[in-house]
Amino acid sequence: MASFTRAPPIARPPPAVRAARQRGLTLIEIIVVISIVAIVMGVAVAGSMQLPSARLRRSVTMLASAIKVAFTRATATSRNLRLVMDLQNQRIWLEEGDMPMLVQSKDTTSTGGAEAVTDAERAAREEGAKMVKGPRIPKPSFHSIATYGFGETEQDQGNGKTGKPLQRGITFRQVQIAHDDAPRTAGRAYLYFWPGGLTERASIQVRIGESDEDYQTLTLLVSPLTGKVTVKAGAVDLTLPTDDATASDREDKGF
Fold first, then answer.
1. What CA–CA distance (Å, rounded) separates 238 from 254?
2. Pick from 86, 82, 84: which is nearest to 186 by CA?
3. pLDDT digits (tens, 9 = 90+) for 116-144
4. Within 13 Å and on the Cβ side, how many CA atoms surround 7?
5. In whole angstroms, what is the distance from residue 118 CA to residue 6 CA?
6. Distance CA 170, CA 164 (A)
7. 175 contacts 182 by C-beta, under 8 angstroms
8. Torsion angle, CA of 107/110/115/119, rounded to 10 degrees?
9. Of 4, 50, 74, 106, which residue is most buried, by most CB within 10 angstroms?
10. Cα separation of 86 and 92, whole Å?
């Protein structure tokens, strides 16, 4: 006949341990948990607000660096250069000219007297040519250059875009150069640099997304004599010299 052995009884935890397991969370513990969750959410929200601002500042720094490179290279190589700002694709690059040139004031094509590049520029150039008869003056052409990371001629993967893009979510609000007849909000804008340390007076506005709020916009003001870039908060329009005899372009106001 088979015999069975009784299993030893399972030891029960002390009463104090059983009570601690059953009592749940105290009010203080709940408050601590809620406080930790609130802090984590606050940090996440603050971080999400700061990221676009950080990308805006990085884009401004890239533009200022490109202007400095072009200003220095034009003097070092004795060649005309220009900074191309593609307002449609939010990209920039540097180009070098093949012959000396003078910038045409109040230029309706935005090229400033150079050879037209885009279809819109060519159409505007042809329309202007119909109004002005006489021998056609040769227009200098420009080609992309690779220098200090600006103006690489390498194409992006299959999209046919050159140059360096602004940071993600950052766009040009408007650009006005001294030779423009009006601020540019589409197409391309060109900022020219000449040997001897000269450029154009310019206002370059960049913003977060498509916002028209001033607090989400930064403006780069370019000095024509030194190439100095001054960054201002908000949208700052271009101020051109007046016809006052006491005013002079040779007086560098820092913008």
1. 13
2. 86
3. 666 666 666 566 555 555 555 667 788 88
4. 3
5. 95
6. 13
7. no
8. -120
9. 74
10. 6
Domains contained in the chain, CATH given: 52-233 (3.55.40.10)
Q: Which residue in 152, 157, 175, 147 sits closest to 90, CA to CA? A: 175
The DSSP bridge partners found for residue 82 are 95, 192
Specify the length of the chain in residues.
255
Q: How far is CA 162 from the centre of its chain?
A: 15
Q: How far is CA 231 from the centre of its chain?
A: 12
Q: Cα separation of 25 and 204, whole Å? A: 58
Query: At residue 218, what are phi and psi to the nearest 5 degrees?
Result: -125, 145
Annotate the chain with DSSP letters as a single string. -----PPPPPPPPPHHHHHHHHS---HHHHHHHHHHHHHHHHHHHHHHHHHHHHHHHHHHHHHHHHHHHHHHHHHHHT--EEEEEETTTTEEEEEEESS---PPTTBSSSSTTSPP-SHHHHHHHHHHHHHS-SPPPPPP-EEE--BTTBS--PPPTTT---SEEPPTTEEEEEEEETTBSS-B-SSEEEEEEETTTEE--EEEEEEETT---GGGEEEEEE-TTT--EEEEES--------S-TT--TTS----
Rounded to the nearest integer, the mean pLDDT of the chain is 77
pTM equals: 0.67
Give the contacts of 143 (CB within 8 A, at least 6 positions apart): 95, 96, 98
**Nearest Cα to Cα of residue 220 among 249, 243, 189, 246:** 189
Q: How far is CA 228 from the centre of its chain?
A: 17
Model pLDDT for residues 238-250, shown as the tens digit of each residue: 987 765 544 454 5
